[in-house]
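Appendix B. One record, verbatim.
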Amino acid sequence: MSNTPAFELDDVSKRYGPRWALARLSFSLPRGASLLLTGHNGSGKSTLLRMLATASFPSVGKLTILGQDCRAGREALRHQVGLLSHASFHYEDLSAEQNLTLVAQLLGKPLSAVPLLLEKVGLKARSDSPVRQFSAGMRKRLAIARILLKAPALALFDEPFGELDPVGITQMEGLIRELKQTGSTVVLATHLIEQGIGLTDRRLHLAEGRAIEATP
């Protein structure tokens, strides 16, 4: 395993207009580790995850992801980082199988993995259905299948248990554990602290964009 951290924030701040969403945040996470990211709504959790996914950049400070500057290495990093967010980003008129097949083609992954992943996330019976007919929970299952297909070095989860029933929550826990076992670094933001603690070995608690508590 590389000694280079999965990511490192050096005095990072993020500003949206007059409001600072993150304020002078410094933190480093080793590769292969798993981090529970906690804090109330508006604490900066989603802002941090978006920056780690290179969907946004710091206003001040330096962010290094997988050994690369977040700006200079943006294109390469997008092939190594996976984000499960509130928005699913599926193609609504395509079926579940077509959505995953398209992603597999773009990533150069074997197409034979698609039906196996659909079965793993409990969507085999609906593989030919257009995504616009899916419930919120089914969309989330398809999104996690996409992350498993990508097999990212850094996997980011923003409230992954939302909209899932108890069976879906148990399944999501298993899929996160699977990513960890394959060597992915996992960052998990959730209000379900009990589930999060059981899946991670470190914790970063944010309040008003600042680190209040960090477990090294």
